[in-house]
Amino acid sequence: MRLTQGAFSFLPDLTDQQITRQVQYCIDNGWAVNIEFTDDPHPRNSYWELWGQPMFDVRDAAGVMFELNECRKAHKGQHYIRVSAFDSTHTWESLRLSFITDRPADEPGFTLERQEVEGRSIRYTTRAYAANRPEGARY
Amino acid sequence: MNAIDKTTATETPRSRYSAGVMEYRKMGYWEPDYEPKDTDVIALFRVTPQDGVDPIEASAAVAGESSTATWTVVWTDRLTAHDKYRAKCYRVDPVPNAPGQWFAYIAYDLDLFENGSIANLSASIIGNVFGFKPLKALRLEDMRLPVAYVKTFDGPATGIVVERERLDKFGRPLLGATVKPKLGLSGRNYGRVVYEALKGGLDFTKDDENINSQPFMHWRDRFLYCMEAVNKAQAQTGEIKGTYLNVTAATMEDMYERAEFAKSLGSSIVMIDLIIGYTAIQSMAKWARRNDMILHLHRAGHSTYTRQKNHGVSFRVITKWMRLAGVDHIHAGTVVGKLEGDPHTTRGYYDLCREDFVPQNLAHGIFFDQPWASTRKLMPVASGGIHAGQMHQLIDLLGEDVVLQFGGGTIGHPMGIQAGATANRVALECMILARNEGRDIVHEGPEILQQAARHCLPLKQALETWKDVTFNYTSTDTPDFVPQATAAE
Question: Ribulose bisphosphate carboxylase small subunit domain: which residues (chain A) (predicted)?
Answer without folding.
Answer: 4-104
